[in-house]
Write a structure and sequence with these properties.
This protein has 397 residues and is α/β, with parallel strands linked by helices. It has one domain: NAD(P)-binding Rossmann-like Domain (Rossmann fold, 3-Layer(aba) Sandwich). Helix content is 40%, strand content 16%. The chain has helices at 17-33, 52-65, 86-100, 115-129, 188-196, 199-211, 239-258, 284-298, 304-316, 338-350, 356-359, 362-371; strands at 7-8, 11-12, 43-47, 68-73, 105-109, 132-137, 143-145, 152-154, 164-169, 176-181, 214-224, 264-269, 329-330. The strands form 4 sheets. A 7-stranded parallel β-sheet has the order 5-4-3-6-11-12-13, sandwiched between helices. A two-stranded antiparallel ribbon has the order 1-2. Helix 2 (52-65) links the parallel strand 3 (43-47) and strand 4 (68-73). It is globular, with a radius of gyration of 20 Å. The two termini are 25 Å apart.
Length: 397
């Protein structure tokens, strides 16, 4: 079938297999161009490995450190008349590239929050690896089923205490408008913490510890975001911010649990980027558009792969993680540079629909969004027939 993008709000409901493969290949090329990560990880588990930061973490570990990788995700395969999710095609492409490079890669598609998937993955680690020396936790989901109680938790993106009103970007039209978000109510905060906090990261770590599959000196990393004050009411100080605070609580707890193995848990605060998750957060797409324009102009713009390569190469595996006062790794450091943030604050006050093309990078935002789903990549013939039902090698029955 001929596959074209079909966009509904902040979601693209189609994905292009060859385009996703090209996107993966481009990320691999970035990592390989930077050479080998000295003393890098060798056996890596990535929980949430199919898109965004999780996918780039897997690529950086495999092609930067020649690591064997196991990836866990929940994606929909394609059918004869319906495309798979982008994460499905990304994982297929990654596995094919890994096989061509002689690298071990195995994937698991299922509910990573469940005990069953944890047990299945741990069995594979025991059989194929023995132990892992790096665990990346990069799950992003709107809901989570508690494996103990069966209760389904649902996260919300809301401010706390009062309605929040600010500028917003219509990512379809490029119009700068205003959005008002009603505050959290009832158990919104608790539900969001249960989905987006550290509970499942701790359950994974506990299960891996109990099974004896964490190597001496193991490191585990979960991802977070802080951002500028303009986004704080809906992010840092909102419901999702409470979840990120819980992530940091769990990081400290995991440090204690991993101490007998000389291990370490980290929260890495990453840069604002166009991802399937960030596209859903009000206010943030306008900020990202302004950020892209400014960082590209000063030559400091990074995408997911540059961020994850820098995390492994310059922080986790060079003996100089450079934690902040709260013990977090900050690879949002270039984004949060005071001079850049002062410029963005000035532009935020000025930006409107009429001057947005001058102050923001709408083309870059839209291009980044489409690339997540395999569209708009050079060298791909989008007029050619594609088979949407292609499989992932390690998942073939």
């Amino acid at each position: 079938m001929i596959i074209a993008p079909k966009i509904r709000g902040f979601i693209c409901t189609t994905a292009h297999p060859e385009g996703c493969a090209k996107h993966v290949a481009e990320q691999i090329a970035v990592v390989k161009s930077r050479g080998l990560i000295e003393n890098g990880p060798k056996k890596v588990l990535v929980i949430g490995s199919s898109t965004g930061y999780g996918l780039s973490s897997r690529i950086a570990a495999a092609f930067g450190a020649n690591a064997a990788t196991i990836g866990v995700f929940f994606e929909r395969p394609g059918e004869a008349d319906r495309t798979a999710t982008a994460g499905w095609y990304n994982t297929r492409a990654f596995e094919l590239e890994a096989a061509a490079a002689g690298l071990y890669a195995r994937s698991f598609n299922g509910d990573a929050f469940s005990y069953a998937v944890k047990a299945e993955v741990i069995a594979a680690v025991k059989a194929d690896f023995g132990q892992v020396d790096l665990v990346i936790y990069s799950l992003a989901s709107p809901r989570r089923t508690d494996p103990k109680t069966g209760e389904v938790y649902k996260s919300v993106l809301k401010p706390i205490g009062e309605t929040y009103t600010n500028k917003n970007l219509n990512t379809t039209t490029g119009v700068v408008n205003e959005v008002s978000i009603e505050p959290a109510e009832g158990d919104d905060i608790e539900q969001t913490v249960a989905v987006m906090g550290g509970q499942d990261w701790e359950l994974w770590t506990d299960a891996l510890l109990e099974a004896g599959v964490l190597a001496d000196g193991v490191q585990t990393v979960a991802y977070s975001y802080i951002g500028p004050e303009v986004t704080w009411p809906v992010y840092k100080n909102g419901t999702i911010g409470r979840a990120k605070e819980d992530l940091e609580r769990v990081q400290r707890a995991l440090d204690a649990k991993l101490a007998p193995l000389h291990g370490k848990a980290w929260v890495s605060v990453n840069k604002a980027l166009v991802t399937q998750a960030s596209s859903a957060i009000p206010v943030v797409p306008l900020y990202i558009s302004l950020l892209y324009k400014a960082m590209k102009a000063e030559g400091t713009h990074e995408d997911c792969i540059e961020q994850m390569d820098r995390l492994l190469r310059d922080r986790l595996y060079n003996g100089n993680p450079q934690p902040d006062e709260a013990g977090r790794i900050r690879i949002d450091d270039w984004e949060m540079a005071p001079a850049l943030q002062a410029l963005l604050d000035e532009r935020w006050k000025l930006v409107n629909t009429e001057n947005f093309a001058e102050l923001g990078d709408f083309e870059g935002y839209q291009s980044s969004f489409l690339r997540l789903f395999g569209f708009g990549l050079s060298g791909v013939d989008y007029s050619a027939d594609s088979d949407p039902s292609v499989g992932i090698p390690s998942l073939a029955s």
